[in-house]
Amino acid sequence: MGRGKIEIKRIENQTARQVTFSKRRSGLLKKTHELSVLCDAQIGLIIFSGTGKLCEYCSQPLRMEQIIDRYLKVTGTRLPEHHDNREQLFHEIAVLRRETCKLELSMRPYHGQDITSIPPNELDELEQQLELSVQKVRDRKNELLQQQLDNLSRKERMLQEENNNMYRWIQEHRAAVEYQQVAMEGKPPENQQFLEQLQFYGEQPSSVLQLATIPSEIHPYSLQLAQPNLQDIC
């Protein structure tokens, strides 16, 4: 029994379509090669798949470029040459140059140039545009300055807070040292004398820099371990 006649139409299933393309492409290339060898024919075959993949065949010893050149000569088809593209590029460059010159001329009045021939109404409009531009620049400048001032104020508050923390730490450290000295040696606290000396030199210091200005006669307390008397032990 012979094969049934296959209806020639697009295969909707993508997998089946790719399988059919692969099989029929191989058969077409085989038949093309046989025709070229048996009949001494010069054949150039170019195939693009549905996915854009290129497949070609050219009769030996020719190249595909030779086959295409022969086809163009026989059919009289003329491909665009390179100088045509250059002419198009030169034309586009000339157009861009003219547009650039127009823009430069239109911007000259904004720099105070070529304004002698401008009528009064256009000068008023130009003045308003310049004032609006200047106002925008000033607003942006003031915004940046305000941001800088805010940053400086924030840094100042942080430094002041660190300064106050350092002062409190010094006060607590001195009080702890005095307490340890009283507990170990049984001496009366001298913090009162220290505070009286501070009051004598002015109000209570509010920063480490003010503490640095206190006279050198006021020294912080330091712990010193008492050495035992060896004679008493003996």
From TrEMBL:
Q: SMART domains attached here?
A: MADS (SM00432)
The main location class comes to: nucleus
UniProt-listed SUPFAM superfamilies: SRF-like
Q: Which InterPro entries match?
A: MADS-box/MEF2_TF (IPR050142), MEF2-like_N (IPR033896), TF_Kbox (IPR002487), TF_MADSbox (IPR002100), TF_MADSbox_sf (IPR036879)
Is DNA-binding among this UniProt entry's keywords? yes
Coiled-coil stretches noted in the UniProt entry, renumbered to this chain: 123-165
The GO terms describing molecular function are:
DNA-binding transcription factor activity; protein dimerization activity; RNA polymerase II transcription regulatory region sequence-specific DNA binding
Q: Where in the cell is it found?
A: Nucleus
Residue stretches making up the K-box domain = 86-176
What Gene Ontology biological process does one annotation of this record name? positive regulation of transcription by RNA polymerase II
GO cellular component annotations of the record: nucleus
Task: Give the keywords, sorted.
Answer: Coiled coil, DNA-binding, Nucleus, Transcription, Transcription regulation
Q: Can the keyword DNA-binding be found in this entry's annotation?
A: yes
List residues of the MADS-box domain: 1-61
This protein is called: MADS-box transcription factor AGL32
Which gene is the coding source of this polypeptide chain? AGL32
